[in-house]
Amino acid sequence: MGRAWPRTAAFVTIWALALAWVGAAAAGSSTLRVVVAKGQRIPIRVAPTGGDSSLAGSARDLLERDLQISGWFRPLAQAEAGVHEAQTTLTGDAALRLEGRVLLGGEQVFGRAYQGTTETARAMVHNLANDIIEALTGQPGFAGTQVICSSDRAGHRELFVMECDGGNLRQLTSDRTLSLSPQWSPDGRRFVYTSYANRFPDLVLVDADSGRRQRIAAFPGLNTGGAIAPDGARLALVLSKEGNPELYTMSLGGGGLKRLTWTRSAEASPCWSPDGSQLVYVSDDSGTPQLYLIGTAGGRGKRITFAGTDSNAPEWSAKSNQVVYASRRGGRYQICLWDPSTAQEQQLTQDGASHEDPSWAPDGRHVVYSRREGGTTQLRILDTWSMDEIGLTRSPGSFYTPHWSSR
């Protein structure tokens, strides 16, 4: 199996393992070559799921949504000549067997079976989607990864988590106070958030599997902006214990507190570079909030954004090495990119809604963000290559500050 060319190439070349050559190619070859222009999608029909399980219809819909969200596929309602077709069979009751295959021109180009239970049915479908994506594109899928956020749907700002298709929504906190700005660790096994459970903002670290919580920053004043370093051992945060909100780092286990900024302005929202040597953060040192870059040794930050009257909520992708952020343009926040290699800014969204708090998917191509319009705030996914958008949340309440996990 080959690989997709980098996104900077004029075309994305997609390779798939096949049982026989399909299309106008030399007889005897065992590899199917499909070329798709950058930003285009592979047309695919996801056929109705066969079998005897009551979950069959849900499995088919979930597989189609996973493939669509991946950005590589364009699901079709009807079968067409020369179009891939995904077929699934789901059998069993308490114990389930899911069989999936992809056909092109009547020939099978992918096939695999999965065992599980009704409790793991969604995970089985996500695994199938990821395997199809990798088999046909050479790129890993992210179906089933988690998005954490803050929401008022329970009456207070509590934390919720969902799978990246918007399903399996679960409430994580019941503090009946403000629980804000959750941030996953790079391995997706922990997250840190700002809690007002003790009336003042403290930073709390949570083990995602066990739910065990630990207050890791409770200095006098503000304790906020927690971001876990790529090595999983350090934390960037904002503290006002010396009077002004300043940028600090510390050991995730406690200790090693180090102050990085010494300004008369307010600092906020730090994020780490992929190698952990730098931080992008927000400061109003220039008079309005803008993004700044600073090394972990501290010193004077370097301003990196200049367009827009307010730039905030940065996140640096380890995959694409780009910083996504929100910037106020024409009275509304829009999703923008900053490229460290060129120092150029690029505006991605254009409409009249307010687009805030973007967070990268594991693929470094998609971002989840909160879209505020008409009195509510819902989560959406943006494909930064094609600019296609997909709604993520539809349930009552508003959703804020999403953060996308690696698992």
Could you please say which CATH topology of the largest domain applies here?
A: Neuraminidase
Q: Could you give a short account of the major beta sheet?
A: 5 strands, mixed
Q: How widely separated are the two ends?
A: 24 Å
Number of E strands: 31
Question: How many separate domains make up the residues?
Answer: 2
The H-level CATH homologous superfamily of the largest domain, spelled out, is TolB, C-terminal domain
Helix share bin: under 10%
Overall description:
With 407 residues, this protein is mainly beta. The chain has two domains: 11-137, TolB, N-terminal domain (Rossmann fold, 3-Layer(aba) Sandwich); 146-404, Neuraminidase. It is 8% helix and 47% strand. The protein contains two helices and 31 strands. The chain has helices spanning 56-69, 121-137, and strands at residues 11-17, 31-37, 42-46, 73-76, 84-92, 95-104, 107-117, 146-151, 158-163, 170-171, 179-184, 190-198, 200-207, 213-217, 223-228, 234-239, 246-251, 258-259, 267-272, 278-283, 290-295, 302-303, 311-316, 323-329, 332-339, 344-347, 354-360, 366-373, 376-383, 389-391, 399-404. Strands 4-3-5-6-7 form a five-stranded mixed β-sheet, covered by helices on one side. Helix 1 packs across helix 2. The longest helix has 17 residues, at 121-137. It is globular and about 70 Å long. The relative contact order is 0.10. Residues 1-33 have low confidence and may be disordered.
